Amino acid sequence: MKKAKIALIFSIIFFLGTVGNIVQVTWLKKQSENNTTLYSATVAKVQIESFEGLYVSAEIKTEEYISNLFIPLIVLKNIRLLDINNLHEGQKIYFRVENSKVKSMNKVDFIDIVSLQTEEKDIFTLDDYNGNMKDFYRVAKVIPTVLALLFLLISITLLCVYLIMRKGGKTSNRFRHIAYK
Length: 181
Fold this sequence. Notes:
Mean pLDDT: 81
């Protein structure tokens, strides 16, 4: 009975955790000019790392900032990598960072950017970023929802088992007293 009680508590905790994850993903906002900060910088080096032909990461080192500019993988899959690769040392770029991450600038090794452009070209815009993230968020909502339903089902099942065991224990004690009289 103690094991059933512990399992019930853990399944409820996992259920609430996945519901919290769903709420968090739902509250994620689209990036806009209002919740991002525009920066300009000079390219020092562009580094694109790939593994077996799959692009894993792209970072831009700048002369002005310690933090490298990191382009999220979900964005990399949907833009022309040639545009990033063609950035050259000394070139002026403009990029946006989420306001919530601005304080991390120059305190971390890299920082995610949500838009990137040069004086000649938009490499990816806020709209591009939001479109790419929309697909990611859809998946990020589906998986926790399925897990939440699974943990809810497990919790209900374990609650029923616990209540039956608890009731069964009291019933059998009643019968014992009657049988021994």
